[in-house]
Design brief:
The structure is a single chain. This protein has 190 residues and is mainly alpha-helical. It is 68% helix and 0% strand. The chain has nine helices and no strands. Helix 5 packs across helix 7. It starts with a helix and ends in a 6-residue tail after the last helix.
Length: 190
């Protein structure tokens, strides 16, 4: 069986099948690494400052102070980030983590837990060497991610019913572009 056909057959497996852990973990780590690298290019201050004393200072703040929440700021700017980054960017990041867990046979509650864990890794691991974790991001990213991710997942699953292979592939590529690339290349099968 071709890798793509095998992946589709496994994706059609019943919901009770055991979840595959490696693909969503490796996928999330790759997304986080690329996103963090892009941050360093777009916002060199503070994200491209690799001095150990700066990292130590920021990680120290991350683990000794509460997450940043400035109620004096307008809605969805409570962490001083632009509104589009918080609403769109974090919603998409959360949905990417959630969706990968769902396509790898995680239940919806398990995918939410995976998105929460991923969000904490992002805020306290990847991003905390440049900025203090954000209370908004810790809550909004997995919640918005679960809502958008479940919509993407439902669309991805519904695409199985499309008879035309090119149309089915197009719908799946639109709702899960990274997953389709990974499955098409045979990197992951879910």
């Amino acid at each position: 069986m071709r890798p793509r056909a095998a992946a589709e057959a496994r994706a059609a497996a019943p919901e009770s099948a055991d979840p595959a852990w490696a693909p969503p973990i490796l996928h999330s780590l790759a997304v986080f690494t690329v996103t963090r690298s892009v941050e360093a290019v777009l916002w060199p201050d503070p994200f491209a400052d690799f001095r150990p004393e700066r990292w130590g200072y920021h990680y120290g703040e991350a683990f000794t102070k509460p997450p940043l929440f400035d109620a004096a700021q307008p809605a969805f700017r409570w962490d001083h980030d632009p509104w589009p980054i918080n609403v769109i960017g974090h919603g998409l990041l959360g949905s990417e983590i959630y969706l990968r867990a769902r396509t790898c046979r995680f239940s919806a509650p398990a995918a939410v837990a995976f998105a929460i864990a991923g969000t904490h890794l992002w805020e306290y691991g990847y991003e905390a060497n440049g900025v203090r974790p954000s209370a908004l991001d810790l809550v909004y990213t997995p919640l918005a991610g679960a809502l958008l991710g479940e919509l993407r997942y439902a669309t991805w699953r519904a695409a199985r019913g499309i008879r035309s292979a090119p149309a089915r592939s197009l719908v799946r590529a639109v709702v899960d572009p990274f997953g389709e690339i990974e499955r098409g290349a045979g990197v992951f099968d879910c």
